[in-house]
C-alpha cells in the first residue's frame, strides 16, 4: 500500500487499512476526514493530532483492539484484522520461558484489574523479560498516569503499523 493508494482508496477500504493500525473509531474517522495527505510526514502529523484530541473512551476502544502481551491465542484469534501486523510485535513472547509467560499473564490480570484496561506496550524489539519488567514498573502508577503511558505506547504501535502498511 502506498500513500497514493490510501488517499484514493474507498472509504471502506481506507477504514479497513486504518483499523489494522488502531481500532479507535474516532481516530479512524478523524484520519479519514483529513485525506488526502500530501506526504507521509503530513499523514504522521495528522494521526498524532487526531490521537491527541481523543477522549478516554476512544483510547480504551483502541486498547481493546490490541492483543494482551503474552496472550498468544489473542494474537491468533482476537481481532483478526490486526493479526498480521501484531504477530511480529510480540515475537519474543513465544520464545520466553514458562515462568516469564506465567508472570506476564499474572501481571496482566493485576494491571487490568487495577486500571480497567490491558497493559499496552510497544513490544517491538523487547524481550518478554523486558516487557515483564516494564509491566511491573508501571503497575504502581496512578490510573491517570497509566492512561497517558498506555496512550503513548499505542501511538508508537500505530506508527509502526502505518510504516508497515505504507
UniProtKB/TrEMBL annotation:
Metabolic or biological pathway, per its Swiss-Prot or TrEMBL entry: Purine metabolism; urate degradation; (S)-allantoin from urate: step 3/3
GO molecular function terms listed in the Swiss-Prot or TrEMBL record: 2-oxo-4-hydroxy-4-carboxy-5-ureidoimidazoline decarboxylase activity
- Keywords, alphabetical: Decarboxylase, Lyase, Purine metabolism
Its UniProt entry gives the catalysed reaction(s) as: 5-hydroxy-2-oxo-4-ureido-2,5-dihydro-1H-imidazole-5-carboxylate + H(+) = (S)-allantoin + CO2
Q: Which InterPro entries match?
A: OHCU_decarboxylase (IPR018020), OHCU_decarboxylase-2 (IPR017595), OHCU_decarboxylase_sf (IPR036778)
Keyword check for Lyase: yes
EC code: 4.1.1.97
GO annotation, biological process? purine nucleobase metabolic process; urate catabolic process
Q: Does the keyword Nuclease apply?
A: no
Domain of life of the organism encoding this protein: Bacteria
Pinpoint the Oxo-4-hydroxy-4-carboxy-5-ureidoimidazoline decarboxylase domain residues: 7-163
Identify this protein by name: 2-oxo-4-hydroxy-4-carboxy-5-ureidoimidazoline decarboxylase
Question: What species is given as this protein's source?
Answer: Halioglobus japonicus
Name of the gene this protein is made from: uraD
Amino acid at each position: 500500500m502506498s500513500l497514493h493508494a490510501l488517499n484514493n482508496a474507498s472509504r471502506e477500504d481506507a477504514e479497513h487499512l486504518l483499523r489494522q493500525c488502531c481500532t479507535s473509531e474516532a481516530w479512524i474517522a478523524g484520519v479519514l476526514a483529513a485525506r488526502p495527505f500530501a506526504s507521509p510526514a503530513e499523514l504522521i502529523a495528522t494521526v498524532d493530532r487526531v490521537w491527541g484530541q481523543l477522549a478516554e473512551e476512544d483510547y480504551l476502544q483502541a486498547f481493546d483492539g490490541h492483543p494482551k502481551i503474552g496472550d498468544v491465542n489473542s494474537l491468533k484469534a482476537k481481532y483478526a484484522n490486526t493479526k498480521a501486523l501484531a504477530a511480529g510485535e510480540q515475537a519474543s513472547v513465544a520464545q520466553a520461558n514458562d515462568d516469564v509467560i506465567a508472570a506476564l499473564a499474572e501481571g496482566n490480570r493485576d494491571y487490568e484489574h487495577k486500571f480497567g484496561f490491558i497493559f499496552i506496550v510497544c513490544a517491538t524489539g523487547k524481550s518478554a523479560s523486558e516487557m515483564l519488567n516494564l509491566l511491573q514498573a508501571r503497575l504502581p502508577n496512578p490510573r491517570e498516569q497509566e492512561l497517558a503511558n498506555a496512550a503513548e505506547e499505542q501511538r508508537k504501535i500505530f506508527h509502526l503499523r502505518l510504516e508497515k502498511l505504507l
